[in-house]
Amino acid sequence: MAKIIIPTPLRKFTDRSNSFETSSNTVVKSLENLVEEYPDLKKHLFDDEDNVRSFIKIYVGDDEIDPLNNGETSVDEDTIISIVPAIAGGSIN
What is the 8-class DSSP label of residue 50? Predict the structure, then answer.
């Protein structure tokens, strides 16, 4: 099964789980499977048109993919999918 790594800021929506295993065969289907299991996560990953939000980066292994263009990227049982939300804030002194 492919594994989705859930970042710390989103774990409050996944019952504190740090990963999720899925048998889906594409990146987008894997993410959809994740939000089916954890519905409160959906609004943080997908916009109103069910596209991955622009500030969410998705990696397959070490490679960043664009979910709009490469969401159909195939995954297999050894695939690691990482979700990386943009983090803003702080100041420069």
Answer: S
Q: What is the pLDDT of residues 32-68, one digit of tens each?
A: 999 999 999 999 999 999 888 888 999 999 999 886 6
**13 SS3 class:** helix
Gap between the Cα atoms of 38 and 60, Å rounded? 21
SS3 content of the chain, % helix, strand, coil (to 5): 30, 30, 40
Phi/psi of residue 64, nearest 5 degrees: -75, 140
Sheet holding 63-65, edge to edge: 19-22, 2-5, 80-85, 56-60, 63-65
- Tell me the average pLDDT of the chain: 88
**In this structure, are residues 3 and 9 in contact, taking their beta carbons and an 8 Å threshold?**
no
Fold of the domain spanning 2-85: Ubiquitin-like (UB roll) (3.10.20)
